Hints:
By secondary structure, chain A is of the alpha+beta class. Chain A has helices at 7-18, 78-87, 138-149, 204-213, 267-283, 332-340; strands at residues 2-6, 32-38, 41-47, 51-58, 67-70, 72-77, 92-97, 103-107, 110-114, 116-117, 134-137, 163-169, 172-178, 182-189, 198-203, 220-225, 229-234, 237-242, 261-266, 289-294, 299-306, 310-315, 320-323, 326-330, 346-351, 358-362, 369-373.
Amino acid sequence: MKFTVNRLEFIKSLTDVQRAISTKTTIPILTGLKLKLEAKGLTLTGSDADISIETFIPAEDDKAQLQVEEPGQVVLTARIFSEIIKKLPEDTLTLEVTENYQTEILSGTASFSIKGLNAENYPHLPEINAEDTLNLESDILKQIIGQTVIAVSTQESRPILTGVHLAIKNGQLSAVATDSHRLSQRKIAINVADSVTYDIIIPGKSLSELSKMIGEDVAQVEVRISENQVLFEFNNTTFYSRLLEGNYPDTDRLIPKDSDTEIDFNASEFLASIERASLLSHAGQNNVVKLALNTENQKATIYSNSPEIGNVEEELKFQKLAGNDIEISFNPDYMKDALRSFGQSTITISFNAPLRPFTLVPSEDQEHFIQLITPVRTY
Amino acid sequence: MKFTVNRLEFIKSLTDVQRAISTKTTIPILTGLKLKLEAKGLTLTGSDADISIETFIPAEDDKAQLQVEEPGQVVLTARIFSEIIKKLPEDTLTLEVTENYQTEILSGTASFSIKGLNAENYPHLPEINAEDTLNLESDILKQIIGQTVIAVSTQESRPILTGVHLAIKNGQLSAVATDSHRLSQRKIAINVADSVTYDIIIPGKSLSELSKMIGEDVAQVEVRISENQVLFEFNNTTFYSRLLEGNYPDTDRLIPKDSDTEIDFNASEFLASIERASLLSHAGQNNVVKLALNTENQKATIYSNSPEIGNVEEELKFQKLAGNDIEISFNPDYMKDALRSFGQSTITISFNAPLRPFTLVPSEDQEHFIQLITPVRTY
């Protein structure tokens, strides 16, 4: 195996593939990066068994200027290989695999020789023969991911909750995540036949990594779903994730249908107030802030108290307040995550009772995005 | 005590003073920030016993818009106080100390109340009645610090070596640091009477912190030295550091007077080569690279080898090579630190024998700056 390639283009592919490579894996060969050189181009593969990423540098790519001298394949320790490539002196590099997978890397007058491994021992990536492909705009996909992964559970006690539940039915995609303290649900109409139905759970971690990889230059992402894998394709990159097995809980019944008190906030202004209040709640033992709404006086006030440090009180600006008076306590970190997902828009928060979950929706479009937070009981 | 001040200007002073405040101190009151309000202005003080920093906001400062309503003083927990100030909603803030040092912080509709401490219990800063003051250009001072602190020892086994030795004599300032494996020495003519002599050792950590605080807007720094303290004054900031006690070793005798082999490199090009070679030396057990100079063939080559990973070899570009052939092994991290202190300039490296220290000097001005590195014995 021998090729020459533009170093900066090679680094781009390498960086993408490295997202899937963990240094902590128990399968030694997975700390490696697989390079496979064919006449048509060079494929880089990285995997941590949950996520696998493949990038392809075509032989005809103008920027990469790949020169295929001798096809072949090898696995190289990803961390040290990538450090070497990043520090090479020239704009191009030549890589050659000699006896016993020993690999020479040449650039200018610098020459590295590192040990390689037999690529035959690298695990095979899953084959996905899905007939249907979904096309999603990359902006929308990144938005859906950003809005839902915040609510996935980070605890392995109920593995199913570490994923985002994606359902496609009647031309609508619905994504929902909950860690049982809060829930985030996003719905969107997509351009597929009504007959296309899917019901899958994708690990939140996979979606976060995927989102980071989709750059500004990607317009569309092609999605293929098989029984236990999902595949995302864009540019010359393929991203595989395993699916979580099991039944996702029925989340529809958790969302209250009506409310007793409603308040409209600018999401980013309310976020700033919550951040101030949480300074003291974080310093104390109970990470709780209290919101008091008084409809008659048209007053909304937030409080937090940490006996060791002090307390904070702030009267909030709001757009509209109606319904019954209420005092409700909640974890400000959940509120911060939820508010960030609304950006600058105006939101409506709807309450029932001090111990019943409350919801946040965009005031303009209440149907397609909802965040739910369970309050904290305080005495 | 009560005042109103521009929040951003207050944050600047606060940030400077916080450099001296450690959260890990064993003296609880030193986790606090002292605020002292007088008719002439507000003084902020932070200290970790080794370093103390005072900043002053004058009542007449246009930007700070300080309004002194009632003089007084208080000590507030620095970390939470600074977080609160940074998150306040408006451009100004009002701070008022009420009963039992309870402190109210108001900005817009947000109001914080935190516990304060009696400022009478805060340690007094040392009084420095030095008659002589030295004036140093801030650029020169930062350069001297940057070039010497790299070589101070980080080990407490010989505390004296954790400092930089500053000597002033015959109108010349000399700064030297060594951790016994390497040495850095800078000399510079300064504008003081020949009769002014000082011989002090300043902790390297103090100098690093001082250097970070001296911004672009500072032209001159005033230095006062007393028996066990040194004081640096600039703008409205005063920086105190304790001095290390004891005799600094005689370093002049460590610097070789002649050499058998000399090579001239561009410092930044040589640095890039050393960084490549050190990728493999770091990965292995011995952090060593080898430099081989062959005068007859006019070749300079660097090698590193890590049995577990692989090896690297690079032929180096240089400007001039003369003298005896030599092969020498050294710790690449010492070499990297030394080379960085020369920036883009051309340097001359002078060798005697494989186990004798070698020196680096700027090719243009060999008298005023020298770095010395002790080689590593390899078999």
